[in-house]
């Protein structure tokens, strides 16, 4: 059960790029959560998945020689969902469909994957930490950085409309 939580079932075993598959699955799950309960459900689910993932990753890697196995993707789910917060909140505030903001969805996906793979600054620092902190925190920080990119680009894209 713990491995199934960490790997999101079979998705963490897809090759190549299990983290990218996990992020893609997270986008679809975020859309479903947004449809079911809007931004607030996505926010609550992100907090719950982060807590669940932190616990499950700690248990799954406790006696393992590999402290960050590639099949563990629950961290990508939490990080990708954070990256999608501006999209979900923006869609809710505008009364728009989630996919109507597809440029934001695409930007959130690409920015999160870039920050997760390249591990700049604080993402790399978090990745070097021990235990569940090292597995989860880098993706959470990458998600926050991607969310910032999405929010700034959305502001810039909508600025002409706001300015009249």
TrEMBL record:
Record protein name field: Phosphatidylglycerophosphatase A
Cofactor names: Mg(2+)
Topological type in the membrane: Multi-pass membrane protein
Transmembrane region(s): 24-57, 98-115, 141-159
Gene behind the chain: pgpA
Role summary: Lipid phosphatase which dephosphorylates phosphatidylglycerophosphate (PGP) to phosphatidylglycerol (PG).
Pathway where it operates: Phospholipid metabolism; phosphatidylglycerol biosynthesis; phosphatidylglycerol from CDP-diacylglycerol: step 2/2
UniProt domain YutG/PgpA: residue ranges: 5-153
Predominant localisation class: membrane
